[in-house]
Amino acid sequence: QVQLVESGGGLVQAGGSLRLACVASGGILRHYAMGWFRQAPGKEREFVAGINQNGGITSYADSVKGRFTISRDNAKNTVYLQMNSLKPEDTAVHYCAARFSSIMSGVAKNTGLYDYWGQGTQVTVSS
Question: pLDDT digit string (tens) for 88-107?
Fold first, then answer.
């Protein structure tokens, strides 16, 4: 059973930056493609960014391209989401998710394809 714990959320002014981290335990991170998702009040959970097992493939939602960067350190069992130029519309609970694959895979954007989820970390951007 893989457990994911996010950290790094908080309150920031528009234009500011935050770096989220997701630490995995109970499994070997290099076997998992990883994703960051977010959910604002009254809205569905949406894909933000994803990265495959070795970091060679990344994908981003159009709304965050050029502002967010996903990366991973398999030796530390940690995935990161660097968020720059934050906007009020980025306000949401941000979740880390893991998708197991026995072969090298790409990035999945569908929440239903992920096997494990963290508890989420709140990101609030003030205008």
Answer: 999 999 999 999 987 778 89
Distance CA(94)–CA(104), nearest Å, equals 25
Of 85, 88, 95, 82, residue with least CA distance to 125? 88
Measured CA to CA in angstroms, residue 51 lies from 12, 14, 61, 98, 127 at distances of 25, 26, 12, 10, 30
- At 37-65, the pLDDT tens digits run 999 999 999 999 999 999 999 999 999 99
Please answer whether residues 39 and 95 qualify as being in contact, where contact means their C-beta atoms are separated by less than 8 angstroms: yes
Contact 36, 48 (CB under 8 A): yes
